[in-house]
Amino acid sequence: MGTIDTQLPGFRRRRMLQGLAAVAGSAAGLVRAAPAGLTIRLSHVVAEDTPKGLAANRFQALVDARSGGRIAVVVYPDARLYGDHDEMQALQLGAVEMLAPSLSKFGRIGFPEFELFDLPYLFPDVANVRRITQGALGQRMLDRLGRQRLVGLGFMDNGFKHMSANRPLLEPAHFEGLRMRIQASRVIAAQMRALGARPVTLAFSETRRALAAGVVDGTENPVSNFWTQGMHEVQTDLSLTQHAYLGYAFVANQRFWESMSAPDRTLVSEALREALYFGNQIADTQNDKALTALREAGGTRIHVPAPAQIALMRKAVEPVHTGLARRIGTAWLDDARKAIDGG
Ligand code: SIN
């Protein structure tokens, strides 16, 4: 399984991180000079016109308005500052103050229980995801991030993922022999293998290019990410499989978080709570808008699986659930299933 990452060659990125460790606040010229007052650098990997991008911008505007410009949130979208490979390290070193990675990206830094959100066909709908993310189980997961000097501030939805390639992907036989780009999640890797494909872990920012170059044959994402990355220009078919969820956790560097005064922490927390609420409100409509835009643009064939095809997909990925239970124990999954069933 290959790992290609982001915009900077390895040696430059390493040097940059070293520099940042020594002088947090100066990222080899990439970070804008901090205005007087407090600056919160928030890095993420998607486009601004996505649920996460819009929520991040809303957070920036709320903090700016409520602090009278004294606290500046500087948002770096589109992996312009850090990408999947180095953003967690950058956060832990204090090179940025906040991130909003997808939940799939927490497994590899020691929180495999976050991969339960990746399980195919676990959640019937977003309302059921929220029973976890807005409840006691979600809070327990956020609290655990403290073990890695992170502060888990809240969850936000994007939506359900769909499969794309240069052919329809509606049942396991259609995946045979395909190289599918995935996020760095063992659950997603197991899902692709169970479907007969070969998973290839790539940074989000490299995905479109890798699809265009034929390094990978297909991928999975909610439509908002598919559309805003221009993946439709390099994939002829989108299959609305809705097979698994994609959401985010907004996290802060613990040292930074604790260094803020109590009133500033309250101001920032409150602004983020509202921004995440806003993000959750618009996530569905952003994905719907992207699907409409995709249909209007033409050129992409859009498929909907038949019930019998969904049944085949569900059956094929059943072992992925037992595989995760073996890795993280049954307690997390039992609690998740209880929340989903309304228990
Ligand atoms: C994201 O939505 O943050 C990126 C998802 C991905 O890497 O596929």
Key phrases:
alpha/beta; D-Maltodextrin-Binding Protein, domain 2; 7-stranded mixed sheet; 12 helices; 45% helix
Question: What is this structure, in a nutshell?
Answer:
The protein is an alpha/beta fold and 343 residues long. 45% of the residues lie in helices and 19% in strands.
Tell me roughly what share of residues is in helical segments.
40-55%
Number of strands: 10
CATH architecture: 3-Layer(aba) Sandwich
Q: CATH H level: which superfamily?
A: Bacterial extracellular solute-binding protein, family 7
Task: Indicate the mean pLDDT.
Answer: 91
CATH class: Alpha Beta
SS class: alpha/beta
What does this protein structure show overall?
The chain has 343 residues and is an alpha/beta fold. It has one domain (10-340): D-Maltodextrin-Binding Protein, domain 2. The chain is 45% helix and 19% strand. Strands 2, 3, 4, 5, 8, 9 and 10 form a 7-stranded mixed β-sheet that branches. Helix 2 packs antiparallel against helix 10 (262-297) and helix 6 packs across helix 11.
